[in-house]
């Protein structure tokens, strides 16, 4: 018993240390976003002037808008494509074909971003010549987000009760009715998870976007990188603080959706037991 208690304490300490190492630099950056001084060497006093200058920076605000437009559109389109792809994989009759498709999907997940960005650069330059800008960034973000959505949706499909589909077919439901009234409601949590993950990946992507920006179009990560080469201003600290709050809001929003769905499932299970 003592060994279990001591190991439990060590595990808690390990978790605390890991989170401190991860979040301490972030909180340090956030605190100095309110620094009246011009650097992060000493805190000269509280001010909001860096946030004011951030919102007055038209160029940076344009790139922020570009980033969110790309993230929202790419996540939406990747969710649609990835969900349909996961359903297609689920209905594969051959287990070998299903496994091969999943392996290819996993390869895209572990491929280094630099290699992926270079491959998109070659594709849009030679194979499919497209003027670099909004469209190339959007297509590349959709491409690397689709495998993420597939991995989020597919487990929900395997958790689905297949007898519901069989019963619907016996009652004369067509494929469209089965998809919209049975499959999609059953995997709704996986679809939302895939969308949030795709949105997050697109929002902070740098390596892939760096290769295929052009024609005056860029995203926030590329712009921050360009500015950091000449020295990071506290305006970037303010921007990072706001981005962290947005990400935190997304996490809590997804968590609330999951909790709400779990509660609805529990209520439904209780009602079914009462009926029985």
Automatic annotation (TrEMBL):
<feature type="transmembrane region" description="Helical">
    <location>
        <begin position="232"/>
        <end position="255"/>
    </location>
</feature>
<comment type="similarity">
    <text>Belongs to the binding-protein-dependent transport system permease family. CysTW subfamily.</text>
</comment>
<dbReference type="InterPro" id="IPR000515">
    <property type="entry name" value="MetI-like"/>
</dbReference>
<dbReference type="InterPro" id="IPR051789">
    <property type="entry name" value="Bact_Polyamine_Transport"/>
</dbReference>
<feature type="domain" description="ABC transmembrane type-1">
    <location>
        <begin position="64"/>
        <end position="254"/>
    </location>
</feature>
<keyword id="KW-0813">Transport</keyword>
<feature type="transmembrane region" description="Helical">
    <location>
        <begin position="12"/>
        <end position="34"/>
    </location>
</feature>
<protein>
    <submittedName>
        <fullName>ABC transporter permease</fullName>
    </submittedName>
</protein>
<feature type="transmembrane region" description="Helical">
    <location>
        <begin position="134"/>
        <end position="154"/>
    </location>
</feature>
<feature type="transmembrane region" description="Helical">
    <location>
        <begin position="104"/>
        <end position="128"/>
    </location>
</feature>
<keyword id="KW-1003">Cell membrane</keyword>
<keyword id="KW-0472">Membrane</keyword>
<dbReference type="Pfam" id="PF00528">
    <property type="entry name" value="BPD_transp_1"/>
</dbReference>
<keyword id="KW-0812">Transmembrane</keyword>
<keyword id="KW-1133">Transmembrane helix</keyword>
<feature type="transmembrane region" description="Helical">
    <location>
        <begin position="63"/>
        <end position="92"/>
    </location>
</feature>
<dbReference type="InterPro" id="IPR035906">
    <property type="entry name" value="MetI-like_sf"/>
</dbReference>
């Amino acid at each position: 018993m003592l060994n279990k208690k001591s190991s439990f304490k060590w595990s808690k300490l390990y978790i605390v240390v890991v989170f401190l190492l991860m979040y301490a630099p972030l909180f340090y950056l956030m605190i100095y976003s309110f620094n009246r001084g011009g650097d992060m060497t000493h805190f000269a006093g509280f001010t909001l002037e860096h946030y004011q200058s951030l919102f007055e920076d038209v160029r940076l605000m344009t790139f922020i808008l570009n980033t969110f437009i790309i993230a929202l559109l790419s996540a939406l389109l990747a969710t649609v494509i990835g969900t349909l792809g996961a359903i297609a994989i689920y209905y594969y009759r051959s287990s070998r074909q299903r496994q091969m498709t999943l392996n290819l999907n996993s390869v895209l997940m572990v491929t280094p971003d630099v290699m992926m960005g270079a491959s998109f650069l070659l594709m849009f330059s030679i194979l499919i010549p497209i003027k670099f800008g909004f469209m190339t960034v959007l297509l590349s973000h959709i491409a690397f987000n689709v495998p993420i959505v597939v991995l989020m949706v597919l487990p929900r499909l395997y958790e689905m009760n297949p007898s519901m589909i069989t019963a619907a077919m016996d009652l004369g439901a067509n494929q469209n009715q089965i998809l919209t009234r049975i499959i999609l409601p059953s995997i709704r949590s996986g679809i939302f998870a895939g969308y949030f993950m795709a949105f997050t990946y697109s929002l902070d992507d740098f390596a892939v976007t760096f290769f295929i920006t052009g024609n005056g179009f860029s995203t926030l990560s590329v712009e921050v990188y360009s500015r950091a080469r000449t020295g990071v201003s506290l305006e970037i600290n303010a921007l990072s603080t706001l981005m962290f709050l947005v990400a935190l809001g997304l996490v809590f929003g997804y968590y609330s959706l999951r909790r709400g769905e779990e509660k609805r499932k529990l209520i439904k299970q209780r009602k079914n037991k009462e009926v029985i």
